[in-house]
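Journal club prep — side note

Before the paper discussion, L.F. wants everyone to see what a predicted structure for a comparable chain looks like in token form. Sequence:
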Amino acid sequence: MDSQKEALQRIITTLANKNEELHNFIDTVSHTLKGVQNNSSKVISDLEEEFDSLYSVLDEMKESMTNTIKQEQARKTQELQNQLTQSTSALESSEELLEFANTALDIKDSEEFAKAAKQIKDRVTMAPAFRLTMKPKATDNMTHLMADFSQERRIIQGLRFLPVPRAPEIDVADCVVADNSVTVCWRMPEEDNKIDHYILEYRKTNHEGLPRVKDERCWEVLDNIRSTEYSLTGLKFDSKYMNFRVRACNKAAAGDHSDPVTLETRAFNFSLDSTCSHLNLKVEDSCVEWDPAGGKGQESKIKGKENKGRLFLSGIATKERSGTPSPKRTSTTRPPPVRGSRDRFTGESYTVLGDSSIESGQHYWEVKAQKDCKSYSVGVAYRNLGKFDQLGKTNTSWCIHVNNWLQATFAAKHNNKAKSLEVAVPDRIGVYCDFDGGQLSFYNADSKQLLHTFKTKFTQSIVPAFMVWCGGLTVSTGLQVPSAVKCFQKAENGLGGSASSLNSVPQ
């Protein structure tokens, strides 16, 4: 009976998975069908624009060449008209002289005849008819302005749709995910020297496998990529996976997308748990600030008005320093809790925990303190940390502590023991936790210098833990373990910088 139930359960699971695949496929086909209709309308519109542009060029060329013919016609007409006018005038003058000469032949008086003959001779010498060139200055030939469009006609008749670039292929084996960066590599299935550039598209997702049309995030587009690889840097890995696809473009057309690939981008993400932090702390998702007024009850008003959209709350430096009580002298008297579990931490335990537990694996996050923060701790703790417990003063918490009040100190703390750290306090602290290996290390987040390492055996799940007094902290999550930290851990075998006096025994 039990085996039959198990077999049936497997069948049900298989059918459910197949149904989900079919739903996803139907969404993809429907989306593609709609894309065919939309894209067809677009390419028809683009084609009409190209032909209209071609018509416009032809009209401009026709007008220009027609004007050239008309200008040549006007030039020849003017020259020939001038010759015609001059020749007509010369003919009239010559005919008049001829008539006068014929008349002179009838003169009987020798003296008058000699006088007339001399006059005719002089007039003939000066006659325009003898100075004119008897050759037209222009011909009626206009063949030098004839155009042969046979080649252009063949080109136009040979117009075809541009060869669309083939879809590239993403080489998953060559893609690299490290240090919150993703390098995507691809290649063309065959050489294409017409490729001008590539378009890379990506999006974050929590779904493994092929991308889904109905996903919670849209594709981000990176255009004009000139090589066959691209690196996205400085990413926050706040999703389990990222989808990638790429397409090739020539001067006028973009090809189909490559088959999409999904790369794993897991990292440790958590927010600060405002529901159980100390009442003297103002807490947002990634920021915490000490509030001497214990005014978490005012946070909802502030959050919706003055501080809406802020990632970091203003520093305590704006308050009167003379009114800042020492952490040892702070009164535990406070307003009643605003929400049910806000009395989780009391007294001088100015603590806030992360809202996600670590139960296995290797994780990394970073913390940056305000410049004027007087006292803070960064570390991990079991969730059963007592309400009056301070980080590092119990056997259930491990931290490094920075104190800028009265006398500056920098120390690693656990089980009420402290080891002074003889290094400068960095601007940002990186926290590396290897739960299975029982190791907690702190680094200068910028230089990756090791500050301190705890070796222990975690007997239950742990959470990131923070203490703040007179100042504030900002936490950066969604970070992978940096390559430099991984290399250091291998080289040092996790022992560098550890302090045996603070190493723990199993709890």
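L.F.'s comment for the group: The radius of gyration is 46 Å. Keep this in mind when we get to the figures.
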